[in-house]
UniProtKB/TrEMBL annotation:
Protein name per Swiss-Prot or TrEMBL: CBPD Carboxypeptidase
Cross-referenced InterPro entries: Peptidase_M14, Peptidase_M14_domain
Superkingdom, natural source: Eukaryota
One GO MF term attached to the UniProt entry: metallocarboxypeptidase activity
Keyword Glycosyltransferase: no
Native species: Erythrocercus mccallii
Active site: 92 (proton donor/acceptor)
UniProt-listed PANTHER family: CARBOXYPEPTIDASE D, B, PROTEASE M14 CARBOXYPEPTIDASE
Transmembrane segments: none
Length: 122
């Protein structure tokens, strides 16, 4: 896990594991939506999730193009965009995939304003 808003495309023509910006026709819209979420999240907006084992990983403005981060061939986000014209972003909300129940109220507080801002934009 991480703390970042990722947007299409997750797959790239070269299928290099990382570092290839794979721009969609609606790239600016996706960046706008991803920033709307990230800019209201206290950790995401810093661009420095500081996840264990990935302390040096950074995301400018708390967002990333999926394939730039890591290439995912055949992902749902790209499939829905290409075949159903559904604009999706992927939200990585925690360094831990399954946070303990005791941390859920904190996660809600971290994400509440982001969710509201995102819904307003959508």
């Amino acid at each position: 896990g991480s703390v970042v808003a990722s947007y299409p495309y997750d797959d790239s023509p070269t299928h290099k594991p990382t570092g290839v910006y794979s721009k969609s026709a609606d790239d600016e819209v996706f960046k706008y939506l991803a920033k709307a979420y990230a800019s209201h999240h206290p950790i995401m907006r810093t661009g420095k999730p500081n996840c264990p084992g990935e302390e040096g990983e950074t995301f400018p403005d708390g967002i990333t193009n999926g394939a730039q981060w890591y290439d995912v061939e055949g992902g749902m986000q790209d499939y829905n965009y290409v075949w159903a014209n559904c604009f999706e972003i992927t939200l990585e909300l925690s360094c831990c995939k399954y946070p303990p129940t005791s941390e859920l109220p904190k996660e809600w507080e971290n994400n509440r304003e982001s969710l509201l801002a995102f819904i307003e934009k959508v």
